[in-house]
Design brief:
Helix content is 11%, strand content 54%. It has 177 residues and is mainly beta. Keywords: Signal.
Length: 177
Amino acid sequence: MKTIKILKLLVITISFCVLNSCDSDDSVTVKRNEVKVNANSFEVTNATLFDDGTYNGITEFELLLTGSGITIASNRDINGHGGFLTLTLFSNEQTGLAEGDYSYDNQNSLGFILNRGGYILDYDASLGDGQTGSVDIESGDVSVTVENSQYTISIDLTDELGNNVTGYYNGDITILD
């Protein structure tokens, strides 16, 4: 009889522990700063925005998202080895990217347009201009939100080869002229 009571107590204790452990499985997924092309990806460690000028209230920006092995000089030289994504975005803000959804359209330069883009997953500056691997963006959207000078950029694009190019970045953006 005593053994049955101990077994019942043991079953109740184990059941309680198992049910309580299920709560920890409901954790929030943390998004990584990365650009992904099919199964290939690189972690985004730096975001740089170049101001290419304002015309009729619309500013053209070039956004470069780069991996840890890449550095961007103020003259736009890309140095090092690694992955990068470049996007040309037209914004109605003159000091940075305005919040909103930028849709691909290479035929005009009105606000909230992704005009062109491309990437190289394995860039090597020592090879100079003769290297291969540059792939152009053909369609898609880029979503931008800004809170306290922190940008959140979500990328959902398709390249010229039909590959999905997705990405996410949350952090500061260095803005250069």
